[in-house]
Amino acid sequence: MEQPFLFKFKQPCSTKFEINNKIQYSYENEMVFLTNGSSNIPVIDSKGQNMPSTKKADLEKGEDQKDSLMWK
Amino acid sequence: MSILLLSNKWDISIDFIVNILRKKNVSYIRINTEDLIDEPVTVNIPNFSFMLKTRFKSINLVQDLKSVYLRRPGKPFEFSDNKPKESIINYVTDQWHSLISGIQAIPDILWINNPLKNNFAEIKINQLFLANKIGLKIPETCITSEKKSLELFWSKCNQKIIAKALYSPLIKDKNEEFFIFTNQILKIDDIDEEDLKISPTIFQEALIEKTDYRITVIGDKCFTVKILSNGSIKSLDWRTLKENIKFVRCDLPSDLEEKCIKLVKEFGLVFGAIDIVQSGDEYYFLEINPNGEWGWLQKSAGLPIAESIADKLCEV
Fold first, then answer.
1. CA of A21 to nearest chain B CA: how many angstroms apart?
2. Cβ(B139)–Cβ(B207) below 8 Å
3. In whole angstroms, how far apart are CA B241 and each of B16, B102, B245, B287?
4. Which DSSP category does A30 fall into?
5. Which of B25-29, B33-37, B259-263, B284-288 has the weakest average pLDDT?
6. Using CA atoms, how far apart are residues A5 and B32, in angstroms rounded to an integer?
7. With helix as H, strand as E and coil as C, how does chain B read?
8. What angle do CA B35, B40, B44 make, to 5 degrees?
9. What is the DSSP letter of A39?
């Protein structure tokens, strides 16, 4: 059976966003917080390389997802 | 008057915007659209009103809305552990999508970006045509489903061509996902005609020795980074380099940046993320992502993109 020509170049990737217990969305502050023991800081203020990527793996290091007709 | 932020709760990039708006004490409401199934919305017509409520805020968009940032709307049930069956998900998603799209009925609102303009600008043919029209250099391009046309193009480009998806290179199967990066085509003799015929593919002249740039345009502002590989491995598509890559703020020739700003305006957009490559002495436009991600540049390259977007949302 035919498959689109470019399918032979496909590479596995993951678009699944993993919500872990180190981050939590605060409805009161309307931002994601890094929960680290007793201190909660906004993820955007966190230092180092561990800032979570967004749902769409938006660091663009392998996964680039278009908005398919804007979420539809 | 308020700003409406439409996204999902795990959109870290929009957290930068929220942080700025809070510090400026600007009135805004953030709607994580996946939560709409739990938060009441009512629209009345005539005597048009569009009431949105979250846990802490409520707003009549018709009276109080001045600008909208359409970022990464989440789908209903997207982050739920107990999802209903697919027919329910699809139906509910469609209904909410239709309702949110109805915000466009409210006049005199600044959209970043207007969804209809986004959809038009997503189309690669539209992008390359308009870019070429306003004077941006583009690679020789052939979009085809016909092997004969590909063979002609192959000769025209001295057998140096790349292939990529015309739209959305993400492939979703039941339990696995795949992505199609840009690939150089080394030979065409064994390309199956039927595989080519089944869907169009975009082919372009290969720009092998190149430097990649990302230009983020917000209104009349332009923020550019050069994409550098630290390691010895070079790649046709820098997105395959998961490590040893860095983004360095830089400036490009002013006429090039002005054309990028013009391109975004010509599409009727406020925001655009543009990919440019330099090959030899020439700069080539590759594509524009009208809703491209920028959060990865805010801190790593020190670009004030969030500030510029917030300023734009506030200036109305």
1. 13
2. yes
3. 26, 41, 7, 19
4. T
5. B33-37
6. 38
7. CEEEEEECCCCHHHHHHHHHHHHHCCCEEEEEHHHHHHCCEEEECCCCEEEEECCCCEEEHHHHEEEEEECCCCCCCCCCCCCCCHHHHHHHHHHHHHHHHHHHHCCCCEEECCHHHHHHHCCHHHHHHHHHHCCCCCCCEEEECCHHHHHHHHHHCCCCEEEECCCCCEEECCCCEEECCCEEECCCCCCCHHHHHCCCEEEEECCCCCEEEEEEEECCEEEEEEEEECCCCCCCCHHHCCCCEEEEEECCCHHHHHHHHHHHHHCCCCEEEEEEEEECCEEEEEEEECCCCCHHHHCCCCCCHHHHHHHHHHCC
8. 130
9. E
Query: What number is the ipTM of this complex?
Result: 0.86
Give per-residue pLDDT as tens, B25-60. 999 999 999 999 999 999 999 999 999 999 889 999
Tell me the pTM.
0.91
Report d(CA B227, CA B213) in Å as an integer: 6
The confidence band for B245, taking pLDDT boundaries of 50, 70 and 90, is confident
Q: How confident is the model at residue B313 (pLDDT cuts 50, 70, 90)?
A: very high
Query: pLDDT band at B177, cuts 50/70/90?
Result: confident
Name which of A10, A68, A70 is nearest B115 (Cβ-Cβ).
A70
Supply the pLDDT for residue B209.
84
Q: What is the pLDDT of residue B124?
A: 96
Residue A51 in this model has a pLDDT that exceeds 70: no
Nearest to B167 by CA among A62, A59, A65, A10: A65
Of A4, A13, A31, the CB nearest to B199: A4
Inter-chain Cβ pairs, chain A and chain B, closer than 8 A: 157
* Domains, chain B, ordered by start: 2-112 (3.40.50), 140-205 (3.30.1490), 209-303 (3.30.470.20)
Q: Return the residue of A nearest to B5 by Cα.
A: A30
Helical axes B124-133 vs B254-266, angle rounded to 10°: 130
**Residue among B267, B217, B221, B314 nearest B4 (CA):** B314
Q: Which of B70, B97, B296 sits opposite A72 (nearest CB)?
A: B97
